[in-house]
Amino acid sequence: MRNNMSNNELNDAIVRTIIHNTPKSVKPVDYLSDILALSRESVYRRIRKEIPFTVEELAKASVEMGFSIDKVIGEVKSDRLYFDMQSGWEEASNLYINTFETYNNHLEKLIEAKKSDAQLILNHIPPLFSIYSDDFFKYSYFKWKNEGIDSCSVKYHFSDLEIPLELLELRKRIIYNIQRIKNSTLILSPNIFLDVIKEIQYHYHKRLITKDELERLKKSILDIISLSEIVAMNGGINPYVKTDIYLSRLYLSTNILYTQYEENIETHFWLYNTTPIIIRCSEICEIQRNWLRTVKMYSTLISLSNEILQTAFFDKQKEYANQYLTPNNNDNHFNIL
After folding, report:
1. Considering the domain boundaries, does residue 2 fall inside one?
2. Contact (Cβ atoms closer than 8 angstroms) between residue 132 and residue 175
3. Are 146 and 43 within one domain?
4. Is 1 a member of any domain?
5. Strands 256-261 and 242-248
6. Which of 81, 141, 216, 270 is buried deepest, with most CB atoms within 10 A?
């Protein structure tokens, strides 16, 4: 049977959710007036359901107050699932900066929450992991620019690209915040570094990267592999952080994040290096968490344990880098995977 949704039902659900998520120390009208930049009278009219919240107001309130729009709609229309994804129809630099801003905002929510959980499945290295190397960070930005909507008419050379100052500042904040995430779980593909090595090799073959730059990028990849190995050996990036790293025996099709902070839960799906698709529906997120548990059952813990497997895994990643990112004397025979 079709599930019809009336305006009154939707407005009721919105107002209930906003009141429920308003901090107890303030009144809903005062709080909304501040975050939506509306007069108290305008907010009163919305709370009394005399006029509806606009889409922009609802979106801003959901971000500031930490509730899920799809969950609100799901209360009155349960046969549909709604998700959040940032539009890609803008200049590549702005989209990349916005993506890193989203990363940082999410990290801050995890840090501030008394109760938090972060579980990440990785079948390839995400741009976020490039923050620990200057050259690799630049390469991630370079790759994004060359795959963006403005790349049809322009191909950027690695040497010509300059990283925006705003992005460099974001990088510093993210490095600081990652070291404050107390507990996290990573489940890795056995060939997690192979895709990015293929990509670097491809851009070298297309002469967008010089031989000297290729050598620097190889060193960057090796440095990140070594850093990851140290995290696995110590169980975290510093003594105050606990990171459980698993090596999956199952095929991992994409990168997936399950995260919880306070009562908010989210699942992020990456269609390769695009901005993530975010689902906040509690039922779907619970299904995803159960699937993560299953994947973990078919994975082997390599942080603070299984030293032989741990060493073999990281040695294999280093072998990929040394084998495929070292140009031959005759560049015409440089292999493309």
Report:
1. no
2. yes
3. no
4. no
5. unpaired
6. 141
